[in-house]
Amino acid sequence: MSLLYHLPFSANCRLVRIALAENKVSFRLVVEAIWERRDSFLALNPEGQVPVFINEQNLKICGASVIIEWLDENMDNSLIGSEIDIRCESRRIMNWFLNKFSNEIDNTIVYEKIMKGFIGKGNPDANILRVGRKNLKIHMEYINWLSKNRDWLAGNEFTIADISAAANISIIDYLGEINWKEYSSAKDWYARIKSRPSFRKILEDKIPGLLPPKYYNDLDF
Questions:
Q1: Pick from 156, 148, 10, 168: nearest CA to 81
Q2: What was the pLDDT predicted at 122?
């Protein structure tokens, strides 16, 4: 069976998990504590980051965007899009979340509230959280605008744009950081994502001692 080295609350790993499930690829999850810098894992990916996917032919594929491109080339169900304009837009939005959202939200809110505790770096920094929440408002307004003006984030198809956005939002939502009353269109869009079978396993992940809001698993909020 294929393997996916991952961290449960890594947005990039969640992106890949959802994409694999959408393509009905069977795989086994292996949690990799990347801060331990294990030699055997570094032999798989010298960068020392997850996700790393190893298929049944023992092909090692490192990085979310690379795994997504491999899926697009090898599976019948294209999650990048069927038309060139959709493919360009879905890649653009995916990269928005892989880079901009990651730098401005994952490296602030997610790091401070989740990762810091895992690696023993102390309590969250209120000033960093304040910056992250200000950034989050801008991102949510943009997602709300896209959701209001398009069927799906990249256009009229469900694509990797929706998956990458939902993978990131699911973590922020677990932390109770989103006031959904301010983003009604994004809320409707996210409810549709949560109802997909590929997303159910994501919503089952839990952090010991840190429970999500009661509505977190509720498909209707």
A1: 156
A2: 83
CB atoms within 10 A of CB 95: 14
- Mark 134-157 as b/e (b = at least 16 C-beta within 10 Å): ebbeebbebbbebbeebebbbbeb
Q: Cα separation of 126 and 124, whole Å? A: 6
8 Å CB contact between 122 and 135: no
User: Is residue 153 assigned to a domain?
Assistant: yes
Which amino acid, one-letter code, is at 172? I
**116 confidence band (pLDDT: 50, 70, 90):** confident
Question: Is residue 70, in this structure, part of any structural domain at all?
Answer: yes
Q: Cα separation of 108 and 7, whole Å?
A: 17
Cβ atoms of 199 and 163 within 8 Å: the answer is no
Q: What is the pLDDT of residues 32-49, one digit of tens each?
A: 999 999 999 999 999 999
**Domain contains 10:** yes
- 132 contacts 104 by C-beta, under 8 angstroms: yes
**Is it the case that residue 97 has pLDDT exceeding 90?**
yes
pTM, entire model: 0.95
Q: How many domains, the chain?
A: 2
Which pair of tokens denotes residue 15? 């992106």
Residue 122 CB neighbour total at 10 angstroms: 9
* Domain membership flag for residue 149: yes
Query: What's 10's domain CATH number?
Result: 3.40.30.10
Note whether 95 and 185 are same-domain residues. Answer: yes
